[in-house]
Design a protein that fits this description.
4 helices, 6 strands, alpha+beta, Beta-Lactamase, globular, single chain
């Protein structure tokens, strides 16, 4: 089980050393990948010209652009809410960037009240993400909301 207190402290230290979003998100995607078990992708999609565009991540090559309302990431963007999906194959319109992914969690990230990115994490396991993961990752995103420089 992930100790989110440690993950949050490590993420805070990363941001304290460099709050610029690209550098910080690069290291935080690596931190998430190393801290949570059974992942095959962990990273960020940045809002650019109204579309999600792949940003710093760990894992196989990913979809470059995701339209609002499309797939789990685009739906989380459109609804502005965390989506915890136990089985992506049952999610209407799921985008299969990596066919090994079976479950996913996506958390919107804000700056000045607007969504600027989403944290996207995939697992090859069904039902990999719990309510504890949701709460811990939302705390991580709150830290990003408050401290990153976009």
């Amino acid at each position: 089980m992930t100790d989110y207190r440690i993950l949050l402290k490590q993420a805070d230290d990363i941001i304290e050393s460099e709050p610029w979003c690209v550098a910080a998100l690069s290291n935080i995607s690596s931190l998430v990948m190393a801290s949570l078990k059974d992942l095959n992708w962990a990273g960020f999609y940045l809002v650019r010209n109204g579309v999600l565009t792949v940003g710093p991540f760990q894992g196989k090559p990913a979809c470059i652009h995701i339209q609002p309302g499309k797939g789990v990431c685009g739906t989380a963007l459109l609804k502005d809410e965390t989506l915890l999906v136990p089985d992506v194959h049952e999610f209407p319109g799921h985008i299969a960037c990596d066919s090994a992914s079976n479950s996913e969690i996506v958390v919107p990230i804000h700056s000045n009240g607007k969504i600027v990115a989403v944290l996207d994490i995939d697992s090859p396991l069904l039902s990999r993400f719990s309510e504890t993961d949701k709460a811990g990752l939302e705390q991580l995103v709150k830290l990003l909301d408050e401290k990153l420089v976009w």
